[in-house]
Amino acid sequence: MANRILTEPGWEGRIRDKVGVNDATLPDAVLQSPDVIGVAEAKVIAAIPHWQSLTGDDRIFLEAATVCMAAIQVIDSMPARLPTRMQGPGMDVTLEIDWKERRAALQAERDEYLGRIDGSDSTGGIGGFWLAGPSRRR
Fold first, then answer.
1. Strand 91-94 relative to strand 85-88, pairing
2. How far, in Å, CA of 59 to CA of 5, rounded?
3. Which sign does the torsion angle of CA 58, 7, 53, 51 carry?
4. pLDDT of residue 67
5. CB 36 within 8 A of CB 88
6. Which of 12, 20, 87, 134 is the most exposed place for a label (fewest CB within 10 A)?
7. Is the pLDDT of residue 51 over 70?
8. DSSP, res 134
9. What is the DSSP letter of 23?
10. In 6-98, where does DSSP find H-type helix?
């Protein structure tokens, strides 16, 4: 199935840049799978029903939100893909990346982009839920 939002060549690199990895760590085949780009685009389209009519800055925000959503789709697999410690003769490198924090940052960025699209209502969130504080009303 062809992409509906990210149609320009090189869209895979945009997602890798957002996650902060190279193509050896996150190959094109993973990003092109329906579980990643297909689901990401479907979620963004569900949030912005009039997505096909967007132009200019709104289209840029739509694409940026889709890139963030695709990055969110793969972020949970990153601890398994990227070793936390690498050792070799004369070197010992430890990577301390909080992937849950990175996921939260990507979600906030995605929501900001969706909120900037004219006429959209992204207050419901995507793929999450909002908690309200305790109520003392009777």
1. antiparallel
2. 9
3. negative
4. 97
5. no
6. 134
7. yes
8. P
9. T
10. 11-19, 28-31, 39-47, 56-75, 78-81
Which two three-digit tokens encode residue 116?
């900037």
pLDDT of residue 130: 46
Amino acid making up residue 26: L
Which residues partner with 87 through β-bridges?
A: 92
Residue holding tokens 């990895």? 21
Reported as type and span, the H/E element at residue 36 is none
The two three-digit tokens of residue 58, written as one number: 């709104």
Q: What is the pLDDT of residues 91-108, one digit of tens each?
A: 777 777 888 999 999 999
Question: In this structure, what token pair is assigned to residue 27?
Answer: 């190959």
Cβ-Cβ contacts under 8 Å for 53 (sequence gap 6 or more): none
Structure tokens at 30: 């993973």
